């Protein structure tokens, strides 16, 4: 499971960066967390991104109910650009490895039902 949250931040970037660091620490302490990244678009400096990888959809959803995640990550994630952020990984390739293609196990949701 890949989660990508994008943000528009033009001012007070030091405070935003501190919030992201705290959120990543809280998320990383949760079972099922694989990795996390924080970046900024070089061609559009007010566009920022937090990307995390999880072992499963369930691990990510369970992490969202963790107390520290609610304290540090949830308020930050609520400020992200409103767009889908969770993606099922359908293929991956490690350096020197083989391409791994998965059939996917995401439950397809009908429009209007969640």
From TrEMBL:
Annotated InterPro entries: ABM_dom, Dimeric_a/b-barrel
Gene3D superfamilies with a match to the protein in the record: 3.30.70.100
Keyword DNA damage: no
Alphabetically ordered keywords of this record: Monooxygenase, Oxidoreductase
Superkingdom of origin organism: Bacteria
Keyword match Oxidoreductase: yes
Name by which UniProt lists this protein: Quinol monooxygenase YgiN
A GO term, aspect molecular function: monooxygenase activity
Domain ABM: 2-66
């Amino acid at each position: 499971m890949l989660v990508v949250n994008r943000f528009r931040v033009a001012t007070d970037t030091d405070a935003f960066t501190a919030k992201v660091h705290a959120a990543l620490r809280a998320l990383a302490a949760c079972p099922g967390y694989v990795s996390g990244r924080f970046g900024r678009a070089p061609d559009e400096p007010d566009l920022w991104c937090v990307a995390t990888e999880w072992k499963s959809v369930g691990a990510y959803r369970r992490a969202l109910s963790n107390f520290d995640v609610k304290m540090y990550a949830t308020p930050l994630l609520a400020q992200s650009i409103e767009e889908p952020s969770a993606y099922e990984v359908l293929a991956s390739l490690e350096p020197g490895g083989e391409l791994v293609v998965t059939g996917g196990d995401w439950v397809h949701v009908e429009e209007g039902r969640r």
